[in-house]
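Structure representation:
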Amino acid sequence: MFDPGTWSLPMSIGAFCIAALVIGYIGAKMAGLADRLADSTGMGEALMGALFLGASTSLPGIITSVVTAANGYPQLSVSNALGGIAAQTAFLAIADIAYRKANLEHAAASVENMMQGTLLIALLAIPLLAMASPEIAIWGIHPISLLMIVAYMYGLHMIRKTKDRPMWEPRQTSETMTDEAEEVHVERNELISMWLRFALFGAIVGFAGWIVGRSGEVMANSTGLSETVIGSLFTAISTSLPELVMSIAAVRRGALTLAVSGIIGGNAFDTLFVAAADVAYRDGSIYHAITEQQIFLVTLGILMTSILILGLLRREKSGIGNIGFESFSILVLYGGALGLLFFSG
């Protein structure tokens, strides 16, 4: 019977590595399709990245969080969600290294990306309110989980309205890459085929995410490492590989807005992992089943996102190692945080 819960540690590690490779490979395919769909549908890179690409590449992560929460691993579940947000923000700094013409924060600055970043900070703050509030659960679900979903949907509505009628725009420079849809005409059948392939790729990475989650449970039980370390380091990074591949592939294609919005939009969607995990966790509110290490990850995500928004506002053309000072700071902060979590258990 195909039950990863019965696998040995070597089998789980092997399955984990194979699933991570599949996630990374399919992520590259999804980036190319998303860029074509953004032009073919007239949706634009920012909205395509925030809504479809960000959500679909997040499928491995949300399935991992839901599966582990349902199986009674709340710290692993929440650490996977919050650790993925931190990892993906660091991946954007890596994409900045891949773009050599100017700092990515300068070239891809847009009002939509800055609004997405602000929405992300708000969504990360909501779980902190639940963690600090009295334990409340209706049918085992904290009411704040519903608030997160409503806030996310309203945020997307605001971003869409801003795209259609922006009240201000970043100053254009010679290095600014604006999100201008190309004149792409595709037949209806071809467009349907593209959407079907996009959905198929999403299903594949979703299944791979399920394998990662179940393998992570075995690793947490067999290695002596804490759920937080497994979640924030191993499962979070592996399920976030589509975002890494997508951002680098999008940068190389010149789709800079797609690269940034795919990461920030995906991170905003990833906050809903916690709400989904709360629904899946049947022993009460998941917000009160976690430790200070998960609070550390929430604040890390808020700090890294704030630094990224500062970079989009400051728009430094070049910095340390030809990347922005903000990207450099994000990488240093992320590396230090992972080291602290790992060595603290």
Summary: The two ends are 34 Å apart (CA to CA). The domain at 8-165+186-283+291-343 is CATH 1.20.1420.30 (A middle domain of Talin 1).
